[in-house]
Design a protein that fits this description.
alpha+beta, five-stranded antiparallel β-sheet, 5 helices, 18 strands, 39% strand
Length: 273
């Protein structure tokens, strides 16, 4: 199998998917990128078995196929190259990979794509909603900091998503602080709830483009975020989220208005003493 692609475009695709790759993966092959070529389209995938990211790029290929390539070595090789076309020659028997550029040839030892874990895929029976990337990114930013890192409270290690027709509410708490964020500018006819882990949301926020539509699909096990040529799949937390509504005052008539700049700077000044 042989294919050619711009080194800059390929590196961009690797940076999108590479956030899921751990420095100490539970399986050696989880330290690889899965390259799959079909109809001159390269799909790059990476996973840690909890979060999976795939993205698609156009290539010039002589035939279809797949190969798993070590992530760290591949990224370091491409970062050392200036922008230029690179050609990959894959030996499907030995799983060796030869990368050719204007600056020389580089050989890597890959693994069979068939040995890579099967990634979750959305199906036609899943519920889905449409929302804007800017709104989703802002809602994650305003809630994720309140989620706990306490493994004894697994439900609180994520952000609670509550879909109620055209309204989406996100909530997070660590039992000391609580954040609830609600917005209505989305399209939906679904009413459900689920818990998304912090890691998946942090990765999602880092790769979300600006001003683009996002399709969020979900079932009892996984949630999928699709935008452009990229998809992030995340395994949901299987736990019951605590009822946080009684904590929020309903008939509190006392309100105070302060300058945000003054309010945020005051704790900083106090902390210096």
């Amino acid at each position: 199998m042989k294919f050619s692609i711009s080194s800059a475009e390929l590196l961009k695709g690797l940076q999108i998917t590479g956030g899921t790759i751990s420095s100490n993966p539970v399986l050696p092959i989880l330290g690889d990128f899965l390259f799959t070529i079909a109809n001159n389209q390269l799909t790059i995938a990476a996973t840690d078995l909890e979060v999976s990211i795939t993205t698609r790029l156009e290539v010039n290929a002589d035939r279809d196929g797949s190969i798993a390539i070590p992530a760290r070595i591949l990224q370091e090789t491409l970062k050392a190259l200036p922008q230029q076309p690179v050609t990959f020659l894959v030996d499907e028997d030995s799983h060796s990979v030869e990368i050719t550029s204007a600056y020389g040839k580089y050989k890597l030892a890959g693994e069979s794509g068939e040995d890579f874990p099967k990634l979750p895929q959305p199906d036609g029976d899943m519920d889905s909603i449409a929302l804007q990337s800017d709104t989703l990114s802002q809602s994650i930013h305003k809630t994720i900091f309140a989620a706990t890192n306490d493994e004894l409270r697994p439900a609180m290690m994520g952000v609670y998503f509550q879909v109620d027709l055209s309204k989406l509410t996100l909530a997070a708490t660590d039992a000391h602080k609580l954040v609830k964020y609600t917005f209505n500018n989305m399209e939906s006819n679904v009413s459900t709830s689920f818990i998304v882990p912090k890691k998946g949301l942090n990765l999602l926020r880092s790769i979300l483009p600006e001003g683009e539509a996002v399709k969020m699909s979900f079932n009892r096990s996984n949630v999928f975020f699709e935008f452009g040529d990229t998809q992030l799949a995340c395994r949901l937390i299987d736990a019951r989220y605590p009822d946080y509504n009684p904590v929020i005052p309903v008939d509190n008539h006392t309100h105070t208005t302060v300058s945000r700049e003054y309010f945020t700077n005051s704790p900083t000044r106090i902390h210096t003493y």
